[in-house]
Design brief:
Helix content: 10-25%
Bound molecules: zinc ion
Oligomer: single chain
Largest sheet: 7 strands, mixed
Shape: globular
CATH architecture of the largest domain: Alpha-Beta Barrel
Strand content: 15-25%
CATH topology of the largest domain: TIM Barrel
Distance between the termini: 26 Å
């Protein structure tokens, strides 16, 4: 969400700021009585707290609850119709109600249903009627209390350890994890003074459509040229994920050779970008052993044996050797984007990708991970640490019945829903034929609003990585209508955009102010460069 924050265990340091998040929970051991008094005074005097899972009786009055009941049997959550600003971005039915897990499971994630004080307001409730999110005004400040852990409703979805919380697998709008990021965004924007946020989309635009093609059949190469041509004619481009099949096996014959390689070189020379789509494209990839990390083309001999079985295949082999081949065969190619065959993901994939020199992955569907914003893929798909790999899940694909060509209006609706949130949409079209599918893609591109960027996946991914690692700060100056924005990027990046609460009249340093005065687009930043921009507010 591009919200500035820092993490501390020092309560007085935290309370020097107007907005504080208490994480991961508050029980009778978290704070002392004097610290509880500090928190209450902080809110009374105009502080704002967002907390989850507060159990301690010592803070019951501040957070506005009488009691709570833990359970692993609450499957749904619905936001109430209120005027509270934190639900400002939740306008669609898929956002107003979310699913916490499938009722096929007898137990899912832990939730704590609250019984509110009469003075507190319930902003969301669980299916058993207990409060899931409540707010309580105290003095000049306000607290929010969530009866769920963000670890369970965001991270658990993103590492795909959820209890099938998604309502569909692909091709629909599923913001189940995004809603919590949007609630925090709205909370920040409602209560900070003169807030600023690093936008998720470059160039002051509203959203981005990321185009991709999977090339996983011998006859999928030539039609790729038609897609590339149509994209160029519509000011777009795409990333081709290539299966580097050099062995014959039970699933298909080898096809990673001339003239297919000439087509790849043409695509690359024409401005398309290229990623890896593994070697044998096995449905059993998610069960492969990690391998040694020393797999090379000369020694790696994987073979698909049937529907989801293979011999001699490893995760490292599929990832590393496919990169070796693409980098060797295509001039100027450095393969850093991966997509698994059949979108089957082994838990060792982030590690294998990191250690093989990749930066980006697109092996999940957005619906499955309930996320339409890119995110750092957790190492081992666990809960401990992020890998260096960023995930760009697939929003729309072409194979589900009745086929992409007949689903363009539906795809457009999903893209627009994401655009409202500043999220992105990833489109995957197999290049096995270019008559119906390329015409449908052109149809989609032509109907896209002009404030949605149409780009290949690699270009956007590089932007996202630089943005995610950006160091920036906004400093007030002695004049109340001025501020200084300091930005340093370790990677070259174009189109970085900041969104401001206050309207800007002018800015120095080659930055462009949008017509609404609320967006500031930075000039191209060279790798390792710092810039300082002097901002004049309108009022
Ligand atoms: Zn494929």
């Amino acid at each position: 969400m591009g919200i500035p924050f820092f993490i501390t265990r020092d309560l007085p340091q935290a309370l020097r700021h107007r907005l504080v998040i208490l994480y991961p929970s508050v029980d009778s051991h978290t704070f002392t009585e004097p610290q509880a008094d500090l928190l209450t005074t902080f809110v009374r005097q105009g502080g704002f707290i967002f907390a989850q899972n507060v159990f301690w009786g010592g803070l019951q009055n501040l957070f506005g609850f009488r009691s709570f009941a833990p359970s692993r049997k609450r499957y749904h959550l619905a936001f109430s119709v209120t005027k509270d600003p934190v639900t400002k971005y939740l306008n669609r039915p898929e956002e107003r109600e979310t699913q916490l897990g499938s009722d096929r499971f007898p137990e899912i994630i832990w939730s704590n249903g609250y019984v509110p004080d009469p003075g507190a307001e319930v902003l969301a409730h669980f299916d058993d009627g207990s409060a899931a999110l409540l707010t309580n005004s105290v003095g000049k400040g306000k607290v929010y209390l969530l009866g769920l852990s963000l670890l369970d409703v965001v991270l658990r979805n993103q590492n795909n350890r959820d209890y099938d919380a998604q309502r569909h697998y692909v091709n629909t709008f599923e913001p189940g994890a995004d809603v919590w990021l949007l609630v925090l965004r709205a909370w920040y924007e409602a209560y900070s003074k003169d807030w600023v946020r690093l936008s998720t989309i470059p160039g002051g635009q509203r959203s981005a459509l990321l185009l991709s093609h999977d090339v996983d059949w011998e006859n999928s190469f030539a039609p790729g040229l038609d897609f590339a041509r149509i994209e160029k004619a519509n000011q777009a481009s795409s990333t081709f994920f290539i299966q580097t099949k050099y062995v014959d096996d039970a699933n298909s014959k080898a096809f990673f050779f001339a003239p297919n390689l000439d087509i790849l070189r043409q695509l690359k020379a024409g401005g398309s970008t290229v990623g890896s789509h593994s070697i044998i494209h096995s449905r059993g990839f998610n069960k492969f052993e990690l391998g040694s990390g020393h797999e090379t083309y000369s020694s790696y001999q994987p073979r698909g044996l049937g529907f989801d079985t293979a011999s001699g295949a490893t995760v490292f082999g599929e990832v590393r050797v496919s990169k070796e081949l693409l980098d060797g065969e295509i001039p100027g190619q450095d393969t850093i984007f991966f997509r698994a065959g059949h979108l089957r993901v082994p838990v060792s994939l982030p590690e294998a990708l990191e250690r093989s020199g990749y930066q980006f992955d697109s092996s999940f569907t957005a619906d499955d991970v309930l996320s339409n914003f890119p995110f750092a893929l957790p190492r081992d798909l666990g809960f401990e640490e992020d890998s260096e790999i960023y995930e760009f899940p697939v929003t729309i694909e072409d194979e589900e019945s009745p086929g992409f060509a007949k689903r363009v209006p539906q795809a457009l609706q999903v893209i627009l829903a994401n655009a409202e949130n500043g999220a992105v949409s990833v489109v995957l079209i197999h290049s096995n034929e270019s008559v119906l599918k390329a015409a449908a893609e052109q149809d989609l591109l032509r109907q896209l609003p002009s404030d949605i960027v149409k780009t290949d996946m690699l270009t956007f991914a590089k932007f996202w990585r630089a943005r995610d690692r950006l160091q920036w700060s906004l400093t007030a100056t002695s004049a109340t209508t001025e501020a200084a924005l300091q930005v340093k990027s370790d990677e070259s990046v174009t189109g970085l955009t900041f969104e401001f609460q206050r309207q800007i009249s002018t800015a120095t340093g080659g930055a462009t102010v949008s017509p609404d005065g609320r967006h500031l687009v930075l000039p191209e930043l060279a790798r390792g460069r710092s810039i300082s921009i002097h901002i004049h507010y309108l009022h």
